[in-house]
Amino acid sequence: MKQLTINQLPQLPFDVAESVNQLRVNLGFCGKEIKAIMITSSTPDEGKSFVSVNLWQQMAHVGNRTLLIDCDLRNSEMRTRYGIGGDDKVLGLVHYLAGQVELDDIIYQTDVSGGFIIPVATHIANPSLLLEGERFEKLMAYCRDYFDYVIVDTPPLMNVADGLNIATHCDGTVLVVRSGVTSRRLVENSIQMLQKTSTPLLGTVLNRVNTSRKAYRYYYKRYYNKYGYYGGK
Hints:
globular, 9 strands
């Protein structure tokens, strides 16, 4: 299997790492049938790709064969943001959906033990027809059987219909919400849209919470002083 290196994985603060770990644990409680998990948001810049990458990494670290699929075919920044690259030309999801290569050509092993990835190697203006085709359905069925978990990072729901097309091939969705920015109405609209796909909403992630609040600082100080050792390298 071909390999890619992820050169810029973030070193998370203790509290953030524990929050991602809690998300991983909670998703495990959803049942063994929940394997393909879509991570999405209502609008851009809410942190869905950040949640996707770090959830994928933690799932792999605890011994799960975990695949990360970058499905933001129009505007993905994952490769540049996280320094994903290899020695050879990178082939991605668009190449497979367009019938140019086969599945084995786009699934890469990474330097994260147990972590695999299908990257976006080239963007496309209108991927809707490709995502609605048989090849994407075949890809999701194969990956669900071959991996313990499949994390699917999608475009925001309010921008394009791609996320809703992808949701129909997943076992559940996690909605990322940016604290203090995303309106209640947007969140409600996103949930209503997901309900139309009959894909379960597994939960929401409140991202970029203002940690300067007095109550949060008090809790974090006590918790970190007690358990901070485990947040080390």
